[in-house]
Each structure stands twice: as C-alpha cells, then as structure tokens.
Design a protein that fits this description.
The chain is an alpha+beta fold and 156 residues long. 65% of the residues lie in helices and 13% in strands. It is built from four helices and five strands; from the N terminus they run H-E-E-E-E-E-H-H-H. A five-stranded antiparallel β-sheet has the order 1-2-3-4-5. Strand 4 and strand 5 form a beta hairpin.
Length: 156
C-alpha cells in the first residue's frame, strides 16, 4: 500500500528550494544590472552617482568629488548618460541629452496646449490648438519609446 506523504516535509523542502532560488536570482540580477539603488532615491553606476537636485533635475556626479557632469530631466536618461560617460562615448551622451530635452519640451507643450484648449473661445483657435496638442502628444510618446529602448539596450 502507498503511504501518505508527510505534508510538513514538502512544505519545508519547498521553502528551502525557494530560498536557494532567491539567492541564485539575486546573484544573477547583480551580474546583469550594474545599478545600485540608494535609500534617498539616487542610483550608483560604476564611478557615477545619479542624484536629484533641488529643482527636480537628475544630475550625474562623480562618486568621490560630487562634480556635476550633466543634468537630465528624466532619471532613465541620466542613467544611460552615466553609462556613456563611463565608456567615454561623448557623441552618444550628447544624443541622449538631446533626446531628453526633446521629450521634456514635447511633454511641456502638451500640458500648455491642454490648458489653452480649455480656455479657447474661437472655433478656429480650438482646431489649431487641437492639432498642436495631437502633434506634441505623438512626439512625446515617440520620444518616450526611444528612451525606453535606449535603457533596455543599455542595461537589460
């Protein structure tokens, strides 16, 4: 006859397996993603610290001296910029900086057009603002996708 299995042993074995799996995944994660998050929200990448300043921008600092190497509007752009600086790819760094500025300006324009549409009284003015809103929204979405691709290609 078959003896019933002891349920406590299977639960204990599964807890041990889960703990081992968690340790293995933690080690693999540290190998794949070289970013170290800090409790204050800043992130360390090699010799650079990406930290938020008083205005809300993300600055790339050198680890020891805290010398500012650049300011970005988005944290993801600042992290990719830090990777470019560590690899001395200055042309790519400037492209990322430009992409960050284009995304930020499109997002800002979108909010301005949304506000102006609410106050537009003339129908022609409303249609012009609606067209500009659609264009800036499309550009912001496009730049956001480009930034996401850059981050995935750089770190994942």
């Amino acid at each position: 006859m078959n003896k019933p299995k002891n349920k406590t042993k299977t639960k204990h074995v599964s807890k041990v397996n889960i703990a081992k799996l968690a340790d293995v995944l933690d080690i693999e994660f540290k190998k794949i993603l070289p970013l170290i998050p800090l409790p204050d929200g800043s992130v360390v990448y090699r010799n650079f610290v990406v930290k938020q300043d008083a205005q809300g921008n993300w600055c790339i600092h050198t680890k020891g001296t805290l010398t500012i190497h650049g300011q970005f509007n988005l944290k993801t752009c600042a992290l990719v910029g830090a990777k470019c600086l560590s690899q001395m790819q200055l042309q790519r760094y400037n492209e990322i900086k430009d992409l960050d500025n284009r995304y930020w300006s499109s997002t800002y324009r979108t909010s301005v057009y949304e506000h102006n549409i609410k106050t537009a009284k003339d129908y022609d003015r409303y249609l012009i603002l609606l067209n500009k809103l659609e264009d800036s929204t499309w550009k912001a979405r496009h730049y956001k996708e480009e930034i996401s691709k850059l981050f995935r290609w750089s770190f994942v």
